[in-house]
Amino acid sequence: MNRRDHFQKAKNYVLYYGEGKVNKMTDYDIAIVEPLGQTLNDVKHLKRFNTLVIAYISIMEVSPDNPVFQLLQEEDFLTVNGEKIKKEAFETYLLDLQSKRWQGLLHHQIGKIIHQSGYDGIFMDTIGDVEGHELPYPLQKEQMKHAVHLVSSLRRLFPEHILIQNNGLEQLCLQTAGYLDGICWENPPFGRKTSETWTAKIVKRLSLLRSKYGIRSFILVDEDVNHRYPIANITARTVADREGFLFYKTRGQYLTIEPEEAT
Asked: Maximum Cα–Cα distance for the chain, whole Å?
């Protein structure tokens, strides 16, 4: 069975951005991990247990303590009125997907992860920033175009590997769906009256994308994010079970591994 067929048959997944702890991930069909936290031997160990190993990579955000930050120039960052756009909650800066330098660095990182480290695919985090309220509409539209081009180029370069997009559920997923194996919905706002119509629309959309393109949908919940809305976590699990989405719940900014819940 090739990796993409294996992916379609997966029954569970774990997402962990910390270091090591591979023995806690071997019971999962899919492990999404931060490559900086895992060694080559860790990846090989997981694959011996028939676990698909997917590498996290940030597509549109970088923090100053990331080594790649030192390779960037001013023109590689997104700006509004001459000021870099910063995500204060994460201390990260938004990058310009139009930048040839950043495009080259992304392709280099991804190629190294797949060819040298043996990962089965890529989890494209922060790509949903193209829909962020921080970007004026013309900038959103421009970045969306380049995000779609990036995803299509990754599919062309890595036709047998797994591509999962995180968020970007409003518009981006409608343009990238044909290139994807999976879409992750991170911390859906279930249980909030003001979001009921929107969440129902996204659930329906993900189900339709499954029917049309065979895309697997993931729901990811960080309990610490939803602590004010505990019903959101319960509803997320209920929706996942009903719709056939893969579900994972954790806490602590994805730096812990929660025991798999019985279903």
From this structure: 52
Structure tokens at 181: 């194996």
> Taking the domains of the chain in order of start, what are their residue ranges?
3-59+101-250
Q: Among candidates 207, 259, 263, 213, which has minimal Cα distance to 27? A: 259
At 185, the pLDDT band (50, 70, 90 cuts) reads very high
CA dist., res. 66 & res. 49, Å (int): 31
Query: What average pLDDT score do residues 24-51 get?
Result: 97
Distance of alpha carbon 26 from alpha carbon 30, whole angstroms: 9
Contact 59, 126 (CB under 8 A): yes
DSSP state of 259: P
Share of the chain above pLDDT 70, in %: 97
Specify the pLDDT at position 258: 81
Own/partner contacts of 140-147, CB < 8 Å, gap of 24 or more, are: 142/98, 143/60, 143/78, 143/96, 143/97, 143/98, 144/171, 144/172, 144/175, 146/97, 146/98, 147/59, 147/60, 147/97, 147/172, 147/176
CATH topology of domain 3-59+101-250: TIM Barrel (3.20.20)
Rounded to whole angstroms, how far apart are CA atoms 52 and 59? 21
pLDDT in tens, 119-178: 999 999 999 999 999 999 999 999 999 999 999 999 999 999 999 999 999 999 999 999
**CB-based contacts of 148, cutoff 8 Å, min separation 6:** 172, 175, 176
